[in-house]
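Objective 1b. Sequence-to-structure analysis of serine-type D-Ala-D-Ala carboxypeptidase.
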Amino acid sequence: MKRFVSALLIGIFTLSISGPALAAEKPNKSTTELAPNTKSAILIEMNTGSVIYEKNKDEQLSPASMTKIMTMLLIMEALDKKQITMDEKVRTSEYAASMGGSQIFLEPGEEMTVEQMLRGIAIGSGNDASVAMAEKLAGSEEEFVNLMNKKVKELGLKNTKFQNATGLPVNDHYSTAHDMSVMARELLKHEEITKFTSLYESYLRENTDKKFWLVNTNRLVKFYPGVDGLKTGFTHEAKYCLTATAKKDNMRVIAVVFGAANPKERNAQVTKMLDYAFAKYQSREIYKKNMPLAMLTIEKGQKKKISLVTSEPVALLSKKGEEKLNIRPKIILHKDVQAPVEKGEQLGTVQMLLGDKVVSETPLIASEGVKRATWFDLFKRSFGMFTHAGRE
């Protein structure tokens, strides 16, 4: 334990001397024309969530098929919770098969695996696959939409409301560039999703006479190095939209545009934003995901102490060539934590401070679960303490 605490303190001391400054300033005149031919836009860095550029980021607009970012997020969460598996079969209902717009042409009663449905959504933007998965997870699209809007509230988003799982035109269905970037950031925490969104082409029904060719609606995955997602959108009302993500070196950024006039213009605006981010900014990872940073006492548990680890990478964003400043971490632990504790439960926070200003905040989570101690466990613990004191 002493070695662990000492190592932690050394790490904090070193970091407080040489950490780079977080780039959190508002866009200046040199950045205001990054996406002139869009209704709204935002550019953020993935690990910190820092906004590099924004334009009308809170304007409520139709997200079209970018809606499927939330659909895919709920699918990935269900996979993590073991509610479904990738090879599990999903049956297509009459209703799911009736969806118009972009589709993978599912027939009523047709079955595909979750993995195949996810490919159909991520690559081909299949409305029918989206509804089939919504029904699989929630019993009906209506109930799935309730889950979508519940997740919106959990993420603290104020300007998003969903009415379907697809983004097909409907009243009172809207989001914003800011909110979409937050949903994309949450989806990208499920790293497996880019195995689907990064594919330029794939096939469904490979071994049948109905072999179906999927081509990614996001052409940047082929034509911009580092782009591996995420989701396009188009309706006559929304125009051309795109939430894109790209990674170079150790920095991942997310760019969102709403309302471009055509696909060429949409891709040009996003390309300009990505170019700007990678040319001007750098990200430094301070702590990796699952890095142990503290020990926490658990009351009435079968274990007395557990380590708390970072729930995601902790990074700092700075402009290239910017002078290093005094950044220091501050660890805040929950008090009076009693068993039972679930693995992954948030029990603390690590803040990165620039002076007295909090520039980033990351949850610390339990590295393991702790069951509540039985009466006999507590008795043995008390008896051991008594006999130990007696020897002294």
